[in-house]
Request: fold
Amino acid sequence: MTGALGAHVVVLVTVSSRDEGIRIARELLNKKLAACINIVDNVHSIFLWEGKIDEAKEALLIVKTRLDKMNEVISCIKSLHSYQVPEIIAIPIVYGFERYLRWIDESLGHA
Reply:
Protein backbone atom coordinates (compact mmCIF):
# COMPACT_ATOMS: atom_id res chain seq x y z
CA MET A 1 0.00 0.00 0.00
CA THR A 2 1.20 3.51 -0.80
CA GLY A 3 1.74 5.89 2.13
CA ALA A 4 1.13 5.35 5.80
CA LEU A 5 -1.83 3.42 7.17
CA GLY A 6 -4.72 5.86 7.48
CA ALA A 7 -3.07 8.39 5.16
CA HIS A 8 -6.02 8.21 2.75
CA VAL A 9 -9.56 9.17 3.76
CA VAL A 10 -13.08 9.29 2.43
CA VAL A 11 -14.87 12.48 3.45
CA LEU A 12 -18.66 12.62 3.67
CA VAL A 13 -20.29 16.02 3.13
CA THR A 14 -24.02 16.64 2.86
CA VAL A 15 -25.06 19.68 0.82
CA SER A 16 -28.35 21.46 0.20
CA SER A 17 -28.44 20.70 -3.53
CA ARG A 18 -26.64 19.02 -6.41
CA ASP A 19 -25.59 22.45 -7.69
CA GLU A 20 -23.97 23.34 -4.37
CA GLY A 21 -22.23 19.97 -4.42
CA ILE A 22 -20.89 20.53 -7.93
CA ARG A 23 -19.58 23.97 -6.93
CA ILE A 24 -17.77 22.56 -3.88
CA ALA A 25 -16.48 19.52 -5.79
CA ARG A 26 -15.00 21.60 -8.60
CA GLU A 27 -13.24 23.90 -6.13
CA LEU A 28 -11.76 20.96 -4.20
CA LEU A 29 -10.53 19.43 -7.46
CA ASN A 30 -9.16 22.73 -8.80
CA LYS A 31 -7.17 23.22 -5.58
CA LYS A 32 -5.94 19.58 -5.72
CA LEU A 33 -7.53 18.90 -2.34
CA ALA A 34 -9.38 15.84 -3.64
CA ALA A 35 -8.73 13.27 -6.35
CA CYS A 36 -12.34 12.22 -6.94
CA ILE A 37 -15.76 13.25 -5.68
CA ASN A 38 -19.00 11.35 -6.14
CA ILE A 39 -22.28 13.22 -5.82
CA VAL A 40 -25.24 11.15 -4.65
CA ASP A 41 -28.55 12.89 -5.32
CA ASN A 42 -31.84 12.55 -3.47
CA VAL A 43 -30.51 11.79 -0.01
CA HIS A 44 -33.31 12.01 2.55
CA SER A 45 -31.78 13.15 5.84
CA ILE A 46 -33.50 13.06 9.23
CA PHE A 47 -31.55 14.80 11.99
CA LEU A 48 -31.69 16.70 15.25
CA TRP A 49 -31.27 20.45 14.86
CA GLU A 50 -31.72 22.96 17.65
CA GLY A 51 -33.46 20.35 19.82
CA LYS A 52 -36.00 19.24 17.20
CA ILE A 53 -36.24 16.49 14.62
CA ASP A 54 -35.88 17.94 11.14
CA GLU A 55 -35.80 16.49 7.62
CA ALA A 56 -34.21 17.66 4.39
CA LYS A 57 -33.63 16.52 0.83
CA GLU A 58 -29.89 16.77 0.29
CA ALA A 59 -27.06 15.55 -1.88
CA LEU A 60 -24.06 13.67 -0.49
CA LEU A 61 -20.47 14.27 -1.54
CA ILE A 62 -18.09 11.32 -1.21
CA VAL A 63 -14.63 12.85 -1.36
CA LYS A 64 -11.41 10.83 -1.80
CA THR A 65 -8.36 12.61 -0.38
CA ARG A 66 -5.56 12.32 2.17
CA LEU A 67 -5.59 13.06 5.88
CA ASP A 68 -2.81 15.65 5.50
CA LYS A 69 -5.17 17.72 3.29
CA MET A 70 -8.08 17.79 5.78
CA ASN A 71 -7.52 21.27 7.26
CA GLU A 72 -7.53 22.74 3.76
CA VAL A 73 -10.49 20.57 2.71
CA ILE A 74 -12.54 21.78 5.70
CA SER A 75 -11.61 25.41 5.08
CA CYS A 76 -12.53 25.19 1.40
CA ILE A 77 -15.86 23.47 2.06
CA LYS A 78 -16.83 25.90 4.83
CA SER A 79 -16.09 28.89 2.54
CA LEU A 80 -18.59 27.62 -0.07
CA HIS A 81 -21.17 25.73 2.00
CA SER A 82 -24.62 27.17 2.75
CA TYR A 83 -25.05 25.40 6.10
CA GLN A 84 -24.14 26.99 9.43
CA VAL A 85 -22.69 23.66 10.61
CA PRO A 86 -21.83 21.53 7.56
CA GLU A 87 -21.25 17.81 7.91
CA ILE A 88 -17.59 17.18 7.11
CA ILE A 89 -16.59 13.72 8.36
CA ALA A 90 -13.37 11.92 7.40
CA ILE A 91 -13.29 8.13 7.50
CA PRO A 92 -9.88 6.45 7.18
CA ILE A 93 -9.29 4.05 4.33
CA VAL A 94 -7.72 1.15 6.17
CA TYR A 95 -6.99 -0.84 3.05
CA GLY A 96 -7.42 -0.30 -0.68
CA PHE A 97 -6.27 -1.19 -4.17
CA GLU A 98 -2.65 0.01 -4.26
CA ARG A 99 -2.86 1.55 -7.74
CA TYR A 100 -5.99 3.52 -6.73
CA LEU A 101 -4.33 4.87 -3.58
CA ARG A 102 -1.23 5.74 -5.63
CA TRP A 103 -3.49 7.58 -8.10
CA ILE A 104 -4.90 9.66 -5.20
CA ASP A 105 -1.34 10.53 -4.15
CA GLU A 106 -0.33 11.42 -7.72
CA SER A 107 -3.45 13.55 -8.20
CA LEU A 108 -2.87 15.53 -5.01
CA GLY A 109 0.92 15.63 -5.08
CA HIS A 110 2.87 13.48 -2.65
CA ALA A 111 2.75 14.32 1.05
Observations:
- The mean pLDDT is 93.
- Residues 28 and 78 are 11 Å apart (CA to CA).
